[in-house]
Amino acid sequence: MTDAITTYRPDPAVAVVTVNEPPVNALPVRGWFALADAITAAGRDPSCHVVVLRAEGRGFNAGVDIKEIQRDNGFDVLIGANRGCAAAFAAVYDCAVPVIAAVHGFCLGGGVGLVGNADVVVAAEDATFGLPEVDRGALGAATHLARLVPQHLMRALYYTADTVDARQLHQHGSVYAVVPRAELDDAALDVARRIAAKDTRVIRAAKQAINGIDTQPVHRSYRFEQGFTFELNLAGVADGARQRFLDGGA
């Protein structure tokens, strides 16, 4: 666990996992694995009936720490980031209890991976969602964006790196509620408490059942996407794109 990932219990049956990695919640490799561990541990606790995933700061999540990748002369950090993202996304999806994502501000890249695999999404009015991957010379999380918007909109958002706001996602049914920023935590906890009041044995079985009938193999499809990221890195495309971003050119 790192200081950037914390867990507390506002109620005995509700675990709140908070990400706080200034300045923009772009997580380094250790942060993604710590987040995976925190969510998995909460779900394994029999006294926990539901998990709320939230963040402090300017936005929910800005994806991977590109500066960390660029500091590495090889591919160790890139591989670590990809594996860490896969672990965190899987932890949300496979968590033994429902995971509610409470999203504010920007939700980009890896943030979409977390939210797309969540069971319920509650968003602040200022929340925006997008995948800037193509501008960074990478691919990934189309798997998860496709769980938030229809297929053709997903493709348009992916190719253009445009964003979509919380109210648009609410219209598509992927965001459960949109509330003022100041009410986000209370709104997420309200949903969490309603779920937590149910028989956790039934809810845990329901989570397994719903995952079992899912038509999208989220783990396999995301790893498939990541294979193309490795190709782009080996071709030298990704490194240049990341550096242009850090230099302020994108």
Automatic annotation (TrEMBL):
Pfam families in the cross-refs: ECH_1
InterPro entries for the chain: ClpP/crotonase-like_dom_sf, Ech1-like, Enoyl-CoA_hydra/iso
MF-aspect GO terms: isomerase activity
Family stated for the protein in its record: Belongs to the enoyl-CoA hydratase/isomerase family.
Listed name of the protein: Enoyl-CoA hydratase
Organism: Amycolatopsis arida
